[in-house]
Design goal:
Layout: H1 15-26, H2 32-44, H3 55-89, H4 98-105, E1 148-160, E2 165-176, E3 180-186, E4 191-192, E5 197-201, E6 209-215, E7 220-229, E8 234-245, E9 252-259, E10 265-272, E11 293-301, E12 305-307, E13 312-317, E14 322-327, E15 341-343, E16 346-351, E17 357-362, H5 371-387, E18 396-402, E19 409-410, E20 415-419, H6 420-423, H7 432-447, E21 455-457, H8 463-481, H9 487-502, H10 527-544, H11 546-560, E22 563-565, H12 567-577, H13 584-592, E23 598-604, E24 608-615, E25 637-644, E26 647-657, E27 661-664, E28 671-673, E29 682-685, H14 687-700, H15 706-721, H16 727-733, H17 743-760, H18 765-783, H19 792-808, H20 811-827, H21 836-846, H22 849-861, H23 865-874, H24 881-889, H25 902-909, H26 913-925, H27 927-934, H28 938-949, H29 955-967, H30 974-1004
Parallel strand pairs: 1-11, 17-18, 18-20, 21-22, 23-29
Antiparallel strand pairs: 1-2, 2-8, 3-7, 4-8, 5-8, 6-7, 9-10, 11-14, 12-15, 13-14, 16-17, 19-20, 23-24, 24-27, 25-26, 25-28
Helix pairs in contact: 2-3, 5-7, 5-8, 7-8, 8-10, 9-10, 9-15, 9-17, 10-11, 11-12, 15-16, 15-17, 17-19, 18-19, 18-30, 19-20, 20-21, 21-23, 22-23, 24-26, 25-28, 28-30, 29-30
Amino acid sequence: MEQECAFPDVTLADQTTLEQQRALNAHPGNDESSNHGKDTFVILQPRSTRYQLSRKHIVIVIVIVLLILIAAVLAAIFITRAMDSTSCHQCDSTRTSQAQGLVTDNLESISSKTGDHRVDPGKIRPTSPGASDGYGYPWSNIRLPRSLIPSFYEIQLKVDLTKFIFEGSVNISLKVNTRTKYIVFHRSVIDIDDSSLLVRSRYSPPRRIVQQFQVPDRQFHVIEVDQELEMSTTYTLTIGHFSGKLITNLRGLYKSSYTTMDGQTKYLASSQLQATDARRVFPCFDEPDMKARFKVSIIHQSEYTALANMPMVSLTVVDNGWTRRDFATTPVMSTYLLAFVVAEFKSRNHTFSNGYKLKIWARPEAYGQTEHALDFGAKSYDFFTDYFAMADVVPKSDHVAVPDFSSGAMENWGLVIYRETALLFDMHVSSSQNKFMVTLIVAHEIAHTWFGNMVTMRWWDDLWLNEGFASLLMYIVMDHVYPGWNVFAIQVVDDMFPVMVKDALTTSHPVSTNISDPEDIPQHFDSISYNKGMAVLRMLMGFAGIENFRDALRLYVSRYKYSNADMAQLWSTFTESFNNTYDVALIMNTWTLQMGYPMVRVKDEGGHFRLTQTRFLLDQSLDAEDQDTTPFGYKWFIPFTYVTQDDRSDVKLAWLNLKDAVIPKPSSGWLLGNHEYVGFYRVMYEKEMWALLAEQLVGDHTVFPEANRAGLVGDAFIFARADLLDYDIALNLTRYLKKEQSYIPWQAFLHSIEFLRGMISNKAAYVQLQHYLRELVAPVYHLSRASDKGPLPERYLRRVILSMACDVGVEAAVEYAKTMFYHWMNHDNRPSSDLSMLIYSVGIREGGATEWDYVWNKTRVTSVATARDMMLESLVHTQKPWLLWRYINWLFDPDKIRPQNVRVVIGYFSKTPLARMVALQFFMSRWDDLVHTFAYDPFLLRDVIQEVTMYVNTDYHLDQLQAMFEKNTPRGATKAVDTALALIKANIGWMKANYNKITDWLSKNKP
């Protein structure tokens, strides 16, 4: 095999070659040999009959010409070999090159030499029959052709944080799989100097570029060369100059800023390349299975520090206040994992015994908030190194908190980037919930080192392999480091229950789905990929065994490290690791290849219980029409676990193998299914069994695990919502909560009751519901104490109970919160960190513009991002509509609301009845403005649609929204629109079927 060599930036010796290539590109008909030939024939052709040459003279001239041609060919070969040999020997050293000169000197003329040849893919035809490579025209497919595979990138970037521009050069080593004259790669937004392109191999002259053009709807740049690229040969594509702008759009390489305590504005550059935005920074083959090694150099103003995926290997002072940093070459990885940060940040560091370095970076004023992330991060790397029996191959990991970031965090290999609230924790100001979320997100990103970075899905169809596994692994490491947190029970109520609502709609999608259009990729970064993916994997771990599951993961990562794998390879590896005890693909494909999940009915048939399965849908009338749309007919392999009253310690397992199952009936008492709620299914009991379970809850609820107490409440309310169970059964289950001292069931109840409150918040029955909830929570509130002390589950419970007590009007709780608010406002007495949110909210709700403005102004000066977010959320609790309108219109003002916080603030508006009404009116009146302003962020539009329409339940609003979406639905929001409209229709049906029933029950159960 030919030795792989990274060709360097164009060397001084190559300048002639590059100029020749430019000349060839400018005059396609003239290459070096043809020029010689033309000059020769001018000499030989007689101008008139008066000039006659002898045969001897002609022979001499021909010989001389042939010798000149041979010498020229030999010289070209010799120069090319020497040039490539120099390139290979210098591939890891710093070089002065023509491309570097472009980057260093041409800041004033970024676009001066840029071509913009844009074409419709259907209107371009190859110049030879062999151009298609078996794919049709190579730019016609939505995916890149596989005729060329990149193996190495050498990238040089210059980042200017004064002019807010960047520019660079790149050399890409390409291996030829199929003979082709076409090089197709990705580019988007960036400008490319077409004359700076060069295509060459080690032992042949540069290829002449016949034509090049863009295919905008594919984000392709196409180069056609004069001769086919040879099989099994490595070529280098040099792009000597490209450039782009640093703007605050949170995509690609973008600009961010923050204000220091003394009022200075500081700027930085950060990156976000997932899923398809590496092409916005440099020309590349931007698909996850086109892995390569990357060598990066960054030139920047000297007052900044630059970070990349690998450690820095050299630092050079260039001139005029510029510095160049060269970084080590990465392992083989996908383009979307590349990352860059240029900022004036400070780090807190930890070095492991093997030399591995972990650093947490933040603004200097936030340095004190990095301690928890460093401590937990170090423990996480130690845990996962042992768990996978494999260390991270990148020798360092930088975790950076930036002021503006579109998502929570991004797992770039060796350079993980977070929004500040996801990485920073201030023990004096941040709440226990903030600490939990920071821990959760850090664990998730570190888990990606092995699952996502080292082993990557082949294509975005299997995004869930990356995200589902990382989501499960984050709970595994948290449970190891903080065993008292009861994290898997929290996972049930905070992650499983919400996604089970979404997955009960016909607009859901399978965990593994077909993505044919890159525009659809962002829509699949959703709770189905993350939370359902995690849940079905936890179910697999449940029936296979924790150690067996770990061993299978070790085998999988070891087998596919530095490469890509798909779901079939995952299941095959698991089956092998389990010694064929389970046919994992047979079982798990029923969970990953069809949307939805089963409801298991437990039916008493005298001497035994019969277990039957049907697909659960919130709208049961839609079930029949979808039964034949999957190869499994909406049946599943279900590991049904259960305990009985007469043997509570013996957890039994029965399999429903795409059909019914029969289990023994105990002599008396209840049966409780889905033990610890590990299975991704719901259990429906007969009325008599519900009564026995409710009786046990009232008598001694601690007999059931916390997750099952939560599951009983959650299942009963969702069945009632689907009109499969009477609401009186569900509501009667809640009576025991007066004695419940665990956060988990209370959180499940709040999730369940929140739907009721949202649906009837503008109806007369809302007051009755508030009265009932007040009587339910008051006894537990009086047992609670306002404090930041105690273990995390206790602090979680205290926060939930006090918040609910204030929300439903428990007088003592409201008065306490008001008093604390005014102590803070008038005397600057900082409130309890765990109770800050509810204290801010009550102060805003009970106050007016003075209180609102006070809290708003505090958001402008605090240096703690988590505190800022709590204050921003509290502002929606005002009862003054004009304040809400002012607030929501600030979404269009980035000086007031950072772009990263737009969807967060919209989410806050869904939390109170008045704010929801304002948000819906705003949404409908300014939808076109929202689409125009935030089209760059499909995640934002998706979340806005979901939050604003969550509790819409009238035909009038349905008609209005349908008409609005018909006129204007961005491509990246189609699934969100479909889901929202389906949910609204279900809400309308629910109101017609259940509102009067709820009213009757509340009337009969007045306090």
